[in-house]
From TrEMBL:
N(1)-(5-phospho-beta-D-ribosyl)glycinamide binds at G11, T12, N13. The gene is purN. This is Phosphoribosylglycinamide formyltransferase. Keywords: Purine biosynthesis, Transferase. It comes from Aeromicrobium terrae. The lineage of its organism: Bacteria, Bacillati, Actinomycetota, Actinomycetes, Propionibacteriales. The active site is at H108 (proton donor).
Length: 194
């Protein structure tokens, strides 16, 4: 299966997928990595792995709707079977969802529906939960609201700060992502349920 992965930052989730796709029996290849900004480690990781990259910057488009169309076209160029948002910090819009709705998944560092949005580990820490985690879900038009595919629980430790908590979440998150992308692509190719 052909994966396009979209990133906005460090790309540790992307790196886990890159590592997994090096084995042929994983059943998927990353055909391109896209970002909404230049100069991020996620793009560098793709380049080091010899994976094509593209950037669609909001600043290059008159408004968010035009950016959404440009992103959809850039992704479509690579004919993905599945699009993975892995630390992608923009909301995809109607043009993107018209093409890739139902076959775009996103990973989020909390147990949705708790703590949607851009600050999930910080919100969880400030609320005082003792268990948080990560969620893999199918992207819809909302903010972190789509149908949940998988979740993993991660403990919050007494001496955690946002950084230590998010790092612990990311360890489990990348394992969940690799595991479930593998199942989804095998399911798609064999028609079996995971
Ligand atoms: C991940 O926890 C992702 O869920 C969240 O931000 C983090 C991105 O990490 N949106 P990376 O870019 O994959 O390292």
């Amino acid at each position: 299966a052909r994966l396009v992965v979209l990133v906005s930052g460090g790309g540790t989730n992307l790196q886990a997928l890159i590592d997994a796709t090096t084995s042929a029996d994983y059943g998927a290849e990353i055909v391109a990595v896209g970002a909404d900004r230049e100069g991020i480690e996620g793009l560098a990781r793709a380049e080091r792995a010899g994976i094509r990259t593209f950037v669609v910057r909001t600043a290059d488009h008159p408004d968010r709707a035009a950016w959404d169309v440009a992103l959809a076209e850039a992704v479509e160029d690579h004919q993905p079977d599945l699009v993975v948002l892995a630390g992608f910090m923009k909301l995809v819009g109607p043009a993107f969802l018209a093409l890739f709705g139902g076959r775009t998944v996103n990973t989020h560092p909390s147990l949705l529906p708790s703590f949607p949005g851009m600050q999930a580990p910080k919100d969880a820490l400030e609320f005082g939960v003792k268990v948080t985690g990560a969620t893999l879900f199918v992207v819809d038009a909302g903010v972190d609201t789509g149908p949940i595919i998988a979740q993993v629980a991660v403990p919050v430790l007494d001496d955690d700060d946002v950084e230590s908590l998010h790092e612990r979440i990311k360890v489990s998150e990348r394992t969940m992502l690799v595991d479930w992308i593998g199942r989804l692509v095998r399911e798609a190719s064999t028609g079996e349920t995971p």
